Amino acid sequence: MQKLIDIVKERKFKYICFFWVLISIQFVIGNNLQKRGYSVNGFSDFLISLLKIILFSVIFTIVHYLILKLKNKLSGKVQEMKKKTDTKSRIEKYKGIIYFLIIIICWIPALLAFYPVLLNYDGLVQLRDVAIQQIYTRHPIIHTLLLGVFYKFGYAHLGSCANGMLMFSIFQMTVMASIFSYSVRFVEERTDKKWLRNISLIFYAIFPFNQLFPLMTTKDVLFAGFVLLFIIELYKILENSNNKNLNHIVLVIITVIMLSFRNNAVYAIIASIPFIIMVFKKDSRLLKILLSCVIVIVAYKTLNNGLIYITKATRDSNQEKMSVFSQATAKICKEKSDELTDDEKEKISFYFDDYEELGKVYEANISDKTKAMTNCDNVDNNIVDFLKFMGHLGIKYPRQFVDSFLNTTRGYWYICDNSFNQIHHNEFPETKGCLELTFDEFTEIVLREKENSKWPEVQKFYRKAFCENEYTKIPVLYVIFQPAIYFYIVLGFLLYSIYKREKNEILIGTFLFLYFVTCFLGPVAIIRYIYAVIVSVPVLSSMVLKKKNEREYEKSIDNCTSI
Question: What is the pTM of this model?
Answer without folding.
Answer: 0.88
